[in-house]
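Notes from hallway chat w/ T.B., transcribed later so I don't forget. T.B. wanted the structure written out for a chain they're using in a teaching module, and asked if we could keep both sequence and structure tokens in one place. Agreed to drop them here.
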Amino acid sequence: MPTVQRRTATVLSGALTVLALLVVIAALLVPDRLEDVTPIAFLRLPVELLVLLAVVLALPEHLRGVRRLVVAAAALTLALVTVLKALDIGFVEALNRPFDPLVDWRYTPDLAVM
């Protein structure tokens, strides 16, 4: 691979990593109500991300598989929390009440129509 292509790939890889980090931080920092979404709401540092980073970095190098498992579990948890938070925001805006996962799954077919 020529050096120009290698540098381009390195720069793109770094840019995608930074973009992924910004998406994770945004998912952790989005407030529960739409009127609270302001630039100031995104200025704090999420403690959850710092704890995950500390746990992953504390694992020894020979436990690389465990590291990947911890990161994959954290990614799945973050995805679930983000979906539930989006549902909660939607329910507060539309129905003026928070999302209740035990009862509100019956509204799922109506979401597909929108």
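Follow-up for T.B.: The chain has four helices and no strands. Might be a good example for the class.
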